[in-house]
Amino acid sequence: MSEHKEKWPGISCFIKVTRKRTHLLSGKESVETAYYIASSSDGGEAMGLSIRGHWSIENNLHWVLDVAFREDDARHRAKNAADNMTRLRQFALSIGALA
C-alpha cells in the first residue's frame, strides 16, 4: 500500500465492490467485481451510496438507450456509423434532459 501512496499522494482509499445480479427473464445470476480509487475520506457507507448513485444513473441511461432507441438491435457497421449513431442518441438524451 505504501508504494501506491507514493505514486498517488492524494489517494485515501482503495475500494472493492462485488455486485450480484439476477436476470429478470432468465433467472441467471452474475457476479461482477469493480475496483475504485478515491481521494475522499468519507466512510464506507457514504462511498457505497456514491457508487450506487453513479450506477443508478448509468443503468437508467443504458435502459433508455436500449428501450427507447433500441440500441442493442442497431446494425450500423459502415465505417464510423455505429459511433456516430451512439453520439446522436446521447445528444438527443442530453437535449431531453434540458427540456
Give a verbal description of the structure.
With 99 residues, the chain is an alpha+beta fold. The chain has three helices and two strands. A two-stranded antiparallel sheet has the order 1-2. A hairpin with a 6-residue loop joins β1 (13-22) and β2. The chain is extended and about 50 Å long. The mean pLDDT is 77.
List keywords for this structure.
two-stranded antiparallel ribbon, 99 residues, 2 strands, alpha+beta, 3 helices, extended, 48% helix
What number is the mean pLDDT? Answer: 77
Question: What count of helical segments does DSSP give?
Answer: 3
Unreliable runs: none
How many β strands by DSSP? 2
Please write the string of helix (H) and strand (E) elements: HEEHH
Strand content: 15-25%
Globally, the shape reads extended
Q: Output the radius of gyration.
A: 18 Å
**Largest beta-sheet details:** 2 strands, antiparallel
Derived from helix and strand composition plus strand pairing, the structural class reads alpha+beta
Distance between the termini: 47 Å
Percentage of residues in helical conformation: 40-55%
Q: Strand order of the main beta sheet, please?
A: 1-2
